[in-house]
Write a structure and sequence with these properties.
Elements: E1 9-19, E2 32-44, H1 56-70, E3 75-78, H2 82-89, E4 98-100, H3 106-121, E5 127-135, E6 141-145
Parallel strand pairs: 1-3, 3-4
Antiparallel strand pairs: 1-2, 2-5, 5-6
The protein binds zinc ion.
Zinc ion is lined by residues 19, 28, 32, 34, 136.
Length: 147
Amino acid sequence: MNNKSRVTCTRRVKFSAGHRVMGHENKCATPHGHNYVVDITAEAENLDDIGRIIDFSVLKEKIGGWIDENWDHTFLLFEKDTQTIEALKQAPAKKPLYICPFNPTAEEIAKYLLLKIAPEILKGTGVHITKIVIHETDNCSAEARLD
Ligand SMILES: [Zn+2]
């Protein structure tokens, strides 16, 4: 078989969250929300005995589970956005706000999942997430991938 073939698998997960893009010139500077769609692409050195990179359900449980717990039904807010953080802390809520070390654009969210969260979750499994696509709307998405 051709050694140069490259196989990937992709699992889609969804979450609903609010955010505010600090410094945005227009309407995204107002707190608002999206039904985010996340495409998580995985690769491994070798396929397992069954012929998989990783079972789709494991990607959903591991990465989707983290997203559900931390991002679904809350707000992603830049740590420098103290005014919005303080205001939203006054609102009754069942989950904490997610305070990001980045301005929560689709691009930055994709990068953070790719470079920070996924490697921690999949450490030691031999499986690597090599691409994350975040769809904010039907028409708008951002992609982050490893070289
Ligand atoms: Zn938005």
